[in-house]
Design a protein that fits this description.
The protein is α/β, with parallel strands linked by helices. It has 3 domains: 1-28; 36-105, Ubiquitin-like (UB roll), CATH 3.10.20; 108-235, Cell division protein FtsQ/DivIB (Rossmann fold), CATH 3.40.50.11690. The protein has helices at residues 2-29, 49-60, 73-81, 149-160, 163-168, 198-215, and strands at 36-40, 86-93, 99-105, 108-112, 118-121, 126-128, 139-142, 169-175, 178-183, 189-193, 223-225, 233-235.
């Protein structure tokens, strides 16, 4: 009889712990999901926590009681990642039942001439333009409606690696397969052609501008053609 009592107590404690765990689990499953906690990886320029929270609440109408396991977090992430200004969004469930949303906005690297105008980022993605004063970005123009913005974005990224072009690039234009640029401090148009031998073309342009600064004859030229091997062809009006 004594042996039965000795074994009964541990069994009772085990059943009690299992019961408490199950009760806690069930309450956790039926925990109220009553809000979205929004954070940005960088200071936001285009969105804010209030607008994102409102959009999520309106689209999902978070129920007062909702089973935690049934909430499709990937569906929320896909919806957020479909917003053009968002580069990446991650959604997590917090222990207290709320949703935590971490957003990385896209960083514009150029402006696209369109109606209405657009921003473009380093990956060639476009999103609505906003007139932000501290975004002094180059303007991309093209008569080719099907032109790939991925190549253009990559070209601008290469320009940004050079301190001279990063500060001077005003306009980038694509006609067919040929690029041309305009600089902020120089009146002439620069013909780049395609993107082959880009570093060589950049160096030729920098040398030409430096030499012309010394000669003080910049106003004499209308176009500078960098497509020829080992030379710069300058034309006057």
């Amino acid at each position: 009889m004594r042996n039965i009592k000795v074994y009964a107590f541990p069994v009772f404690m085990l059943l009690l712990l299992v019961g408490l765990f199950w009760f806690s689990y069930q309450r956790n499953q039926l925990r109220e999901v009553d809000g979205f906690h929004i954070e940005f990886t960088h200071s936001p320029r285009f969105l804010d926590a209030i607008s994102v929270n409102k959009m999520l609440t309106q689209n999902w109408s978070v129920k007062s009681v909702q089973e935690k396991d049934s909430l499709d977090l990937s569906m929320l992430e896909n919806h957020l990642n479909g917003i053009s200004e968002i580069k990446n969004a991650e959604v997590f469930m917090l222990p207290q039942g709320d949703l935590f949303v971490l957003i990385t906005e896209r960083i514009p690297t150029f402006k696209v001439e369109a109606n209405p105008p657009l921003f473009g980022d380093a990956y060639g993605a476009v999103f609505p333009f906003l007139p932000i004063e501290d975004f002094q970005l180059p303007l991309f123009k093209s008569d080719v409606s099907s032109s790939s913005l991925i190549e253009t974005a990559s070209l601008i990224e290469e320009f940004n690696k050079d301190s001279f072009l990063k500060s001077e690039l005003k306009t980038l234009r694509l006609d067919g397969t040929s690029y041309s640029i305009q600089l902020k401090s120089y009146p002439f148009e620069v013909i780049l052609g395609n993107t082959t031998s880009l570093n060589e073309k950049i160096e030729k342009l920098k040398i030409f501008c430096a030499f012309q600064n010394i000669q003080d004859s910049l106003s004499e030229y209308q176009k500078i053609n960098l497509t020829y091997t080992n030379q710069v062809v300058a034309t006057t009006p």
